[in-house]
Write a structure and sequence with these properties.
Two copies of one chain form a homodimer. Chain A is mainly α. Chain A has a single domain (about 15-120), classed as Orthogonal Bundle (Arc Repressor Mutant, subunit A), CATH 1.10.10. Helices cover about 60% and strands about 5% of the residues of chain A. Chain A has helices at about 15-30, 40-50, 55-60, 65-80, 100-120, 125-140; strands spanning about 85, 95-100. In chain A, strands 1-2 form a two-stranded antiparallel ribbon. In chain A, a hairpin with a 7-residue loop joins strand 1 (about 85) and strand 2 (about 95-100). In chain A, helix 1 packs across helix 5 (about 100-120) and helix 2 packs across helix 5 (about 100-120). Chain A is globular and about 55 Å long. Chains A and B meet through helix 1, helix 2, helix 3, helix 5 and helix 6 of A and helix 1, helix 2, helix 3, helix 5 and helix 6 of B. Chain A binds a DNA duplex through helix 1 and helix 4. Chains A, B: Keywords: DNA-binding, Transcription, Transcription regulation. Chains A, B: This is MarR family transcriptional regulator. Chains A, B: It holds the Pfam family MarR.
Chain lengths: ~140, ~140
DNA sequence: CATTATTGTACGTACCACGTACAATCTCAG
DNA sequence: CTGAGATTGTACGTGGTACGTACAATAATG
């Protein structure tokens, strides 16, 4: 197979970002295959564990997602018995999410796996580089 | 709506990467809506323009994609009359891709739009920061 | 009290990424 | 030079993510 130079494409920052993200996603997927969780699903479980009673809109805002996308995630997790929904007392339009005990247990395992995954990712950088990278990335989405 | 703290989630580098990538993707999508091209489609057209005659495997390797994913992209572009395929002379298993004239014209427009998009992205950084960010990102996917 | 905004629901669309199985072709060891 | 294994392209399928739109129930506001 001929080796193709990417050439000018390598100067495209958006593409670098995409490739870096893709590599991390792939590793995450392999690492979490046994838990059966994706990055987004872990994020949802994590936030719900930290803030029991939150609603669709809270999740969507915290994770920069569409409301429809958010609900697709929540529904899948609910179907697996990891999350439950109950009418919110304060506002009868809202539905409060929380974890089931099964969801809490899985989240704990997931957090441990996230630590390993993050170690794999972060071992490329020293402390100063890591702080720099985090700050530069934050400028993009904030 | 209650404002939910992301808390420990903000220390997850993978999530920052994902959010940054998401923000860039969203801007790209809006910016390219009139051309009807996605980031990946532009990448494929660009590489094909630079290396006429390349094959499925070349594209997949250069863009870190699965062969099946690559072909889905190529087929869609072929159906729109932007790319053509012809049997390769050197290896009769291979199929050589190239751009149609219509594809070349669209690619030129896309390159101009990419420049604008990249300006939007890069104006967050000075030259030194940009070089740093590019280098740090490259460590992840290389 | 009437209008407007918010929240959740229920559809649909599109893109991307990967897996598997298969046939044609090439390569290389023997 | 022949047969085994590797490579290439094809044709399916699955799942996750992301967004749009239209609608009903409820809350907030004038």
């Amino acid at each position: 197979m001929a080796r193709i130079a990417r050439g000018p494409l390598d100067t495209i920052l958006g593409l670098r970002l995409r490739r870096a993200n893709g590599a991390v996603q792939r590793h995450f997927g392999e690492h979490f295959a046994d838990l059966g969780l994706t990055q987004k699903q872990v994020s949802v479980l994590w936030l719900t564990g930290d803030h029991p009673g939150l609603a669709q809109t809270d999740l969507a805002a915290a994770l920069d997602m569409d409301r429809a996308t958010t609900m697709a995630l929540v529904h899948a997790l609910e179907k697996r018995g990891l999350m439950t929904r109950a009418p919110a007392l304060s506002d009868r339009r809202k539905i409060a999410f929380s974890l089931t005990s099964q969801g809490s247990i899985l989240l704990d395992k997931a957090k441990a796996a996230v630590d390993e995954h993050e170690d794999w990712l972060k071992r490329r950088f020293d402390a100063a580089e890591l702080a720099t990278l985090e700050e530069l990335l934050a400028r993009i989405y904030r």
